[in-house]
Amino acid sequence: MDTVQKHFVDALAEHSIVLTDDQLQQFEQYYKLLVEWNERMNLTAITERDQVYEKHFYDSLTLSFYTDMKQVKTLADIGSGAGFPAIPLRIVFPHVHITIVDSLNKRIQFLNHVVKELDLAHVETVHARAEDAGRDPKLRDSFDLVTARAVARLVVLNELCLPFVKPDGLFAAMKASDANEELEEARFSFGALQAKVAQIESFQLTAEQAKRTIIMARKTGATPKKYPRKAGMPSKMPLLGF
Q1: Do 108 and 125 contact (CB within 8 A), yes or no?
Q2: Quick check: pTM over 0.85?
Q3: C-alpha to C-alpha distance for 181 and 166, rounded to whole angstroms
Q4: 3-class SS at 57?
Q5: C-alpha pair distances (Å), 124 with each of 47, 188, 227
Q6: Phi/psi at 85 (5° precision)
Q7: Per-residue pLDDT tens for 145-200?
Q8: What is the pLDDT of residues 69-116, one digit of tens each?
Q9: Helix H or strand E segment including 154
Q10: Minimal CA–CA distance to 169: which of 238, 219, 241?
Q11: d(Cα 212, Cα 191) in Å, to the nearest integer?
Q12: DSSP for 90-153, written as a single string
């Protein structure tokens, strides 16, 4: 175990997450695949090994610090990009059944390759716009936990992600900084999509003290039939309530 891995392991151990040798090997393999494929397609601007471990792997796992993952059986990651937070969460919590939704087929191909190379069971990828996938009866109102990391403003994310959450399930929006302004802007959309803010966690990453905020919303009922609107509408005309 080198310095980068030791820092990663020690930081997670502070939150009662103990990695096995196999899991640590999976993370290292994931890193190598990320860098290799990033040379052919734009997956991430962060490629330095210590930065990937900190700002992608560790950052993805911070969600588990504030959520009881033992109670999560199904998770959907919307706009997953290079697989964050879904793949790190799947590596550490192998009991969780993961569904990844992304609109770019090249990213889906990369994720399928990662799943195969890391031999990860219970991972399904869906190539679709979130607005379209959110109307699929197999996906709609069906997940214990839905995540989105660095995808869009909260008012837009609510319409893209909350339709996947089952009643009494959770949506976790993982944001890069303070989210007070976004929370105020998204106030109407929470109600329109049958959800209430349940928890807000603000913290810093370990090495550079980068600020992060996780906003968790509890689904209070089934998604109204008119949501999500057709592809592109949530970002063009957000649910602002006026």
Answers
A1: yes
A2: yes
A3: 27
A4: helix
A5: 25, 32, 23
A6: -95, 0
A7: 999 997 789 999 999 999 999 999 999 999 987 788 899 999 999 999 999 999 99
A8: 999 999 999 998 999 999 999 999 999 999 999 999 999 999 999 999
A9: helix 154-161
A10: 219
A11: 25
A12: HHH-TTSEEEEEES-HHHHHHHHHHHHHTT--SEEEEES-HHHHTT-TTTTT-EEEEEEESSS-
CA–chain centroid gap for 176, Å, is 13
Q: Is 16 left (phi over 0), alpha (psi -120 to 50) or beta?
A: left
Token output for 76: 């959907």
CA gap 81, 86 in Å, rounded: 10
pLDDT at position 210 is 83
Give 241's pLDDT tier (boundaries 50, 70, 90).
Answer: confident
Dihedral sign (CA 208, 209, 211, 217): positive
Strand order in the sheet with 74-78: 123-127, 97-102, 74-78, 143-149, 165-175, 211-219, 195-204
CA–CA separation, 10 vs 230, rounded Å?
45
**% helix / strand / coil in the chain, to the nearest 5?**
40, 20, 35
Contact 74, 103 (CB under 8 A): no
What are 204's two structure tokens? 């810093």
Q: Which residues contact 115 (CB under 8 A, 6 or more apart)?
A: 87, 123, 125
Nearest to residue 163, comparing CAs of 179, 137, 187, 140?
A: 140
Q: DSSP letters along 167-212, please?
A: EEEEEEEEESS--HHHHHHTHHHHHHTTEEEEEEEEEE-SSS--EE
CA 76 – CA 170 distance, rounded (Å): 11
Number of Cβ within a 10 Å radius of residue 200: 16
Residue 108 contacts residue 127 (beta carbons within 8 Å): yes
